[in-house]
Amino acid sequence: QVQLVESGGGLVQAGGSLRLSCAASGRTFSNYAMGWFRQAPGKEREIVAAISRSGGSTFYADSVKGRITISRDNAKNTVYLQMNSLRPEDTAVYYCAADRVLGDSYLPIRTVQYDSWGQGTQVTVSS
Question: Which residues contact 49 (CB under 8 A, 6 or more apart)?
Fold first, then answer.
């Protein structure tokens, strides 16, 4: 499994921006599709965005389309989540996840498809 460490969370006012980072180690990063998930208190963990091995394909949850961008730098073993126009309903613990996949066309979007997870980083958006 690959080890994942998230950073960049914090407290921000509604309308503000944050950039989350997830640093990977232990395996060949470019063999993994990557995803960002979030979990609010009392709610199930949900997909926010996912990106293919090369970064050529992405997926976004409807609730974040147009406000959030996922990207990756395979040379730095890092995946990013740029979050703009943040809303109070974006408040959650954000998790980075990795899924070792055979090809670049594979883009997992369900939690059960991912086998490596970070510890999470708290994002709080005040109104």
Answer: 35, 36, 58, 59, 60, 61, 64, 68, 69, 70, 81
- C-beta contacts of 43-49 below 8 A and 24+ residues apart: 43/92, 45/95, 45/111, 47/109, 47/110, 47/111, 48/81, 48/94, 49/81
Lookup: tokens for 4: 């994942």
Type of residue found at 12:
V
Task: State the distance between the two ends of the chain, measured CA to CA, in whole angstroms.
Answer: 39
Q: Which two tokens stand for residue 63?
A: 């609730």
Tokens of 39: 């979990």
DSSP 8-state class, residue 14: T
As a whole number of angstroms, the distance between CA 2 and CA 115 comes to: 9
The pLDDT, as a whole number, for residue 26 is 87
Is residue 116 over pLDDT 90?
yes
Kindly indicate the confidence band of residue 104, based on its pLDDT and cuts at 50, 70 and 90: confident
- The predicted pLDDT at position 105 comes to 86
